């Protein structure tokens, strides 16, 4: 769900414009995300084999949803240490999505068209990221303008808009959990043999 990259973009603005972080300090907060991506990337393939690729992708989206919910209580006051585990959680989410999602898409594609499928998948991720920034930005700006017209301070108005954008992301991620679990679920062509567990 690269859509949620819009939250990363506006979180960086929130850190600097509202919490007063320097660009360097705000950047350092995202370092654990990169570390988590590297650490959990190796766990994505075993997780896919253990619980199924569709469950791994759905789990990752659920984790990202949880991370977005954890951001909501923070407004004008938050610390580097309080936000650190949330950002790290979001990094783990990324690594648990991309590998199993790519594997599932390519496994369902004829080998002759694997290159096209891979390109389309990557293009869809780029487009989704752009849409996330655009739509969340529009929601944020609309809510921010409404709060300013109501007499709120610029800081409070931005926080209100930021939280509105987070709520939109939560709704989209919740839908994504269901859609990915259902659409990526392997087809059941054969009945499950007696005595064998139903992994679906």
How would you characterize the overall build of this protein?
By secondary structure, the chain is mainly α. The protein has a single domain (2-183), classed as Up-down Bundle (Growth Hormone, Chain: A), CATH 1.20.1250. 77% of the residues lie in helices and 0% in strands. It has helices at 5-17, 23-29, 31-51, 53-71, 80-107, 114-149, 154-183. Helix 3 packs across helix 5 and helix 4 runs antiparallel to helix 5. The protein is globular. The two termini are 22 Å apart.
The major sheet is characterized as: none
Low-confidence runs = 189-194, 196-200
Strand content: under 5%
Radius of gyration from CA coordinates: 19 Å
Q: Report the CATH topology name.
A: Growth Hormone, Chain: A
Average per-residue pLDDT, rounded, comes to 81
Going by CATH, what is the homologous superfamily? MFS general substrate transporter like domains
Number of strands: 0
The residue fraction in helices comes out at over 70%
Question: What are the key terms here?
Answer:
single chain, 200 residues, mainly alpha, Growth Hormone, Chain: A, disordered C terminus
Sum this structure up briefly.
The protein has 200 residues and is mostly helical. It has 7 helices and no strands. The protein has a single domain, classed as MFS general substrate transporter like domains (Growth Hormone, Chain: A, Up-down Bundle).
């Amino acid at each position: 769900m690269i859509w949620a990259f819009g939250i990363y973009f506006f979180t960086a603005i929130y850190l600097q414009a509202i919490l007063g972080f320097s660009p360097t300090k705000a950047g350092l907060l995202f370092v654990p995300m990169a570390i988590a991506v590297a650490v959990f990337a190796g766990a994505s393939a075993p997780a896919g084999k253990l619980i199924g690729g569709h469950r791994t992708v759905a789990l990752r989206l659920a984790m990202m949803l949880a991370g977005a919910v954890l951001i909501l209580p923070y407004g004008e006051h938050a610390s580097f240490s309080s936000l650190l585990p949330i950002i790290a959680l979001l990094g783990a989410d990324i690594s648990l999505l991309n590998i199993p999602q790519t594997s599932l898409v390519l496994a369902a594609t004829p080998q002759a068209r694997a290159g096209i499928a891979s390109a389309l998948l990557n293009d869809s991720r780029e487009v989704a990221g752009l849409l996330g920034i655009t739509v969340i930005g529009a929601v944020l700006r609309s809510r921010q303008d409404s709060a300013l017209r109501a007499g709120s301070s610029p800081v409070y108005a931005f926080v209100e808009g930021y939280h509105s954008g987070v709520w939109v992301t939560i709704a989209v991620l919740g839908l994504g959990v269901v859609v990915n679990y259902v659409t990526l679920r392997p087809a059941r062509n054969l009945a499950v043999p007696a005595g064998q567990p139903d992994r679906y």
